[in-house]
Design goal:
There is one protein chain. The longest helix has 18 residues. This protein is mainly beta. The radius of gyration is 18 Å and the shape is globular.
Length: 170
């Protein structure tokens, strides 16, 4: 088995504003056999002030990492584009006993974790990896800034409702 080699960039960056999806910031969940914290940031592709800067940051980092490897091709599969054309980035960090991911309001004060639909920014760092003649980049979750609480919490179905009915999610 080939070992993965990581090159970490210590710069903490901040994402553009985006919608919070599938936050898992207070309790880790198993992913690839490791407990992880995560959040998905939905980015408006039609907003050049949101989409273009983060795409440029990722592309610039991938190019610099490729250059450091003598021009080796570096996979930059960080921004996911859905079949409907929506852009998102999944930020993760392994749970090494550090506890919940820090969440702050715009004034830098600690706040509750966001829920689906809230407007957030993600503080993150980048790393490059190589393994078995392949290379790529990863994003690592640092903390979350909750900009606007506009999401709607998922509600549990009332005990007397039919749980097969999808209408209980709001």
């Amino acid at each position: 088995m080939t070992n993965i080699q990581m090159t970490y960039d210590k710069t903490v960056r901040i994402s553009p504003f985006g919608k919070c999806w599938s936050p898992n910031l207070t309790k880790s969940e198993k992913k690839f056999e490791h407990p992880m914290y995560s959040v998905t940031l939905g980015i408006d592709r039609d907003d050049p002030t949101a989409f273009d800067p983060i795409r440029k940051t990722l592309n610039d980092f991938a190019k610099a990492f490729s250059d450091s490897l003598g021009g080796m091709k570096v996979d930059n599969k960080i921004i996911y584009i859905s079949d409907k054309g929506n852009a998102s980035i999944r930020f993760n960090i392994r749970d090494k006993g550090q506890g919940a991911v820090p969440c702050y309001n715009e004034d830098g004060e600690p706040t509750e974790a966001p829920i689906d639909g809230d407007i957030i920014q993600v503080k993150y760092s980048l790393a490059g990896w190589t393994m078995g003649g392949k290379a790529g980049i990863k994003v690592y979750l640092d903390s979350v800034v909750v900009v606007e609480r506009s999401g709607k919490p998922k509600k549990e179905p009332p005990p007397e409702s039919n749980e097969d009915d999808d209408d209980w999610l709001t």
